[in-house]
Every structure is written in structure tokens, then in C-alpha cells.
Design a protein that fits this description.
Blueprint: E1 17-22, E2 28-34, E3 38-43, H1 49-62
Antiparallel strand pairs: 1-2, 2-3
Length: 67
Amino acid sequence: MKNTRGLQRVQLPEDLIACAVTDTNGTCLIVSAGAEKGIRFHFHEDTARAVREAFLTRCKSRGKAPG
């Protein structure tokens, strides 16, 4: 299924994969992906709510599918 940007959804792996990443603001988190639970972002318990919400808002605005 392609969107207006010409991007296409990819099939998630059957087995869970996880990767540690740092966003552009220096927030460290784990990104996991798997067919059973989809893509998830795991923040350290001490990460402020405002930081988590800002990160998720940036992700949502960049990956928005049409209508």
C-alpha cells in the first residue's frame, strides 16, 4: 500500500528485533519491531513526559499516511 509520498509499508519481522537509538535531542531509547506487537518505543523510566510526547509528535508528523 503506497501513500502520496511514494512510500510503502514494510512487513515486520516475525521475531522481535530491538535497537538502541538516540534522537536528535539526545534522548536515548530502545526501538523494537515485531509482527506480534508492531513498532514500539521504549523510554527510560526517568524520561520526562514532555520529552516522550515531543518525540512521538515528531514521529507522527514525519510518518503521516494520507487520509
